[in-house]
Amino acid sequence: MEIFLERMKSLLGDEFGEFLKYYNGSKTFRGLRVNTLKCSADKLSRLIGFELKNTPFCREGFYIPEEVKSIGNSPLHHAGAFYVQEPSATSAVEMLGVEEGDKVLDLCAAPGGKSTQIAAKLNGKGLLWSNEIVKSRAIILLSNIERMGVRNAVVSNCRPDALCEKLKGYFDKILVDAPCSGEGMFRKNCGAVSEWSVEHVKSCAVRQLRILNSAKYALKEGGELVYSTCTFSREENEEVITRFIKENPGFSIVDSGVSFGRPALEYARRILPQDGGEGHFAVKLRKNSGEGSVPDLKKPGAKIPDIAEEFYDDTFADRPFGDKFEIIGNNVYINFDLPDTGGLNVLRKGILFAELKKNRIEPCHHAFMCAKAGDLNRKVDLDINSIEIKKFLHGEEIEIPPSLKGYTGVLVNGISTGFGKASGGRLKNKYPKGLRTL
């Protein structure tokens, strides 16, 4: 990696020695972000079993102590109370400045850390459209959207150019967290080191500019876009942005109002390990002018079978997800007004509510993950340290009060974690097999 270090020395000058001290150190930064759709930071700090120390990058971000292992096995992780996320990776969404009601596109969204951070800022209002071009990664993205209880998202597996051409002028905010050479991940990911070369850096820069030139069409006039990478190279950061602005005079770099990291280009920020995170670059752009037409919206409103409506009213209080139904195949969705999504390979829009089967209905995990405790007519609330929550996450039946009958939500300390079917003092387990603990 001599070539990489020589390039970093050229980039950092007098600060290279400090960078090298961290780069060669054994300690890497691990973090989590509280999912405020399901849990407050105060509540998480009471339950998680270790002290939460804030990162400088976002109010909801905290460091995971070095001694803490296997945090993904925690019932709180299963419940979507938090997302394990490298601390500096939260910086880009913080710079985007998402507000409730915005329509936001995350164009390169897998595995979902930044998308679910956007969703928490939207707080169930507006729209999150999360796209990932690689199908296997899009499936992981979808799973995380579901786990974190996001109600107002579209997940697609589509080429950026095709998506942005069809949705011209539709989005208030866009995040382009572009695929990159991953220099900021070298300390944690040996694979990123082995794949690195100057040629790879240059090829990434070409792809990044192409993605930006797709994204520009989907942004409305006056809208804002954040471009980010987890790499340090000028070619993939400053040079990509400088060329984009030169070729697109309708865009300008704007101040995102943050102070973490260090300046890079006008108003851009670069984060190095000595800044408290593994590494990131982000810059905010505004579309001051440019062509674009907002697509017409389609209003869902399919009539669903009586059995599905009966299940909805029996299981959930006051129809918490609304009543804009859509039926695709045998699946019932609850969603919202959207443009025509034909040809965009949409994997999910809104809440996957239930599956219609012969003479019956099978509820879906997503609906229960989106529910808050007060939305559920029947529920069992299990303690994080109880044997019952361990059994439930393992796929076993658990004992419950005999008075409960029918589909019942399962919570861990008040946070929705899944569901089962209650009968005779037992809860038949409906936790998805692919998510169960070993």
- Strand tally, please? 25
Mean of all residue-level pLDDT scores: 95
Helix content: 25-40%
Largest sheet: 10 strands, mixed
What is the overall number of helices?
14
Low-confidence stretches: none
List keywords for this structure.
ten-stranded mixed β-sheet, 438 residues, five-stranded mixed β-sheet, alpha+beta, single chain
Explain what the structure shows.
It is a single chain. Helices cover 29% and strands 26% of the residues. It is α+β, with helices and mostly antiparallel strands and 438 residues long. The two termini are 39 Å apart. Strands 5, 6, 7, 8, 9, 10, 11, 12, 13 and 18 form a ten-stranded mixed beta sheet that branches.
What are the SSEs and their pairings?
Layout: H1 2-12, H2 16-23, E1 31-34, H3 41-47, E2 53-54, E3 61-63, H4 75-78, E4 82-84, H5 91-96, E5 103-106, H6 113-122, E6 127-131, H7 135-147, E7 153-156, H8 160-166, E8 171-177, H9 190-195, H10 198-218, E9 219-229, H11 238-247, E10 251-254, E11 262-263, E12 269-271, E13 280-287, E14 297-298, H12 306-315, E15 325-328, E16 331-334, E17 338-339, E18 346-349, E19 351-357, E20 360-363, H13 365-370, E21 379-382, H14 387-394, E22 398-399, E23 406-412, E24 415-423, E25 426-429
Parallel strand pairs: 5-6, 5-8, 6-7, 8-9, 21-23
Antiparallel strand pairs: 1-3, 1-4, 2-3, 7-18, 9-13, 10-13, 11-12, 12-13, 14-17, 15-16, 16-19, 19-20, 22-25, 23-24, 24-25
Provide a compact summary of the structure.
With 438 residues, the chain is α+β, with helices and mostly antiparallel strands.
